Amino acid sequence: MNTLIAPEKQRMLSLDVLRGVAILGILPMNILVFCAPFAAYGNPSIYFEGTALNYWIHGVIHVIFDLKMMALFSMLFGAGIAIYDAKSRKDGVDQTAKIRWLWIRRACWLAFFGILHMVFIWEGDILFGYAMTSLVFAWWVRRLPTPWLVAVMGAVLLIHIVLAAGFGWIMHFIPVPGEDATPEQIAQYEESIAFIDPSPAQVAMLEEVYRGGYWGLLQHRLPLIAIIQLGMFPVYMLWRTGGLMLLGILLMRKGVLTGDRSPKFYGLMAAAGYLVGLPLVLGGLYLNASNQWDPMYFSFPGQMPNTIGSIAVMLGHAGLLLWIVRSGVLSTVTGVLAKVGRMAFTNYISQSVICALIFYGYGAGLYGEIDRLGLIGIVAAIWLLQIAWSNAWLSAFRMGPLEWLWRTLTYMKPQPLRLQSGSSEGAPPA
């Protein structure tokens, strides 16, 4: 028996562990956008006190988490496509049409949940983009022969890199208002660079909005959705996410993400990912710091080392985690993380709800009040809460509450939720 298949209805332990780490790992990045202007995501000199500790915390989080966990999630979404497609040929019967419509329903419901999330809780949702990427692109090329899959994946990721560089480069051509500029010209310039370098007036406006009531925040959020979700999807997320989904399909096809390779293979995978990616990520961090975190420099070329290097570092993270799972060390830890991964959808949405209640005005209203060190404490507390919650919930139920709802809507009939007495059965991969 494959030791990497958990007894809970033959779930893949390796995928659950990777998913658990990914869902916990996106929080240190996402929490920044809940409590500060978006520019603070990549620039430690904006908004927070410019102490050495602040810069060190930013650097560590940047190297370990920034874009890496989103990349891991994207790759795992591609793995999910491969798992779903495998159902098409179950027991020697071709059920391609049936599985295709199941996937379309599954992705459409995910997009619907993403819309609810982005409108009513947080504009930075990723579920809608993942669902649309799979519907527009990834699902339809899942069966390409391996050489073609590799070629398409490489081309798509190259398009992403070129577009990211191009849009960053364009920022340098925005005309800077001169001394004789009118207030309207100054306001137009400030608006065009608000995402990378907000003016004091814009920061004050954000503080007022996010510390205010729910209705004012909702009115502020809707235009942001158009920019972040609809505007950036065709020029950024579609290509990066789509390419990484194809990488997930490829690595599932080769038995990498299923944990079927040797510990030596995963050790080499981790070493190669880190040797390629870390110099790029660390080099980019150094160059941005050397340029005093200049927003225009960060927009191009400062963001590019991490844009490229994050994919290699993500593979290093995946290799290390798969080595841990495959070698059997830290089995208690991996078992705990796997349950967090089995409830990734529920945990992702609950992170947004918790952060909104901490930082927004209809909750504790702590927007802008917590420094980076304090944010680390909040992240750790949420991690512990979600680890405890996931393990407690799955001791009585087969899947998380949102996973159950999603699966029920996909199959259009209620799915069993409670575990039978004395059973450790879990939900099959959805």
Model description:
This protein is mainly α and 430 residues long. The chain contains 18 helices and no strands. The protein has helices spanning 13-25, 27-35, 52-64, 68-86, 96-120, 127-136, 146-170, 183-192, 200-210, 214-231, 233-253, 263-290, 295-302, 304-327, 331-342, 344-359, 372-393, 401-411. Helix 1 packs across helix 15 (331-342). It starts with 12 loop residues before the first helix and ends in a 19-residue tail after the last helix.
Topology summary:
Blueprint: H1 13-25, H2 27-35, H3 52-64, H4 68-86, H5 96-120, H6 127-136, H7 146-170, H8 183-192, H9 200-210, H10 214-231, H11 233-253, H12 263-290, H13 295-302, H14 304-327, H15 331-342, H16 344-359, H17 372-393, H18 401-411
Helix pairs in contact: 1-4, 1-14, 1-15, 2-16, 2-17, 4-11, 4-14, 5-6, 5-18, 6-11, 7-11, 7-13, 12-14, 15-17
Quick synopsis:
With about 425 residues, the chain is mainly α. About 70% of the residues lie in helices and about 0% in strands.
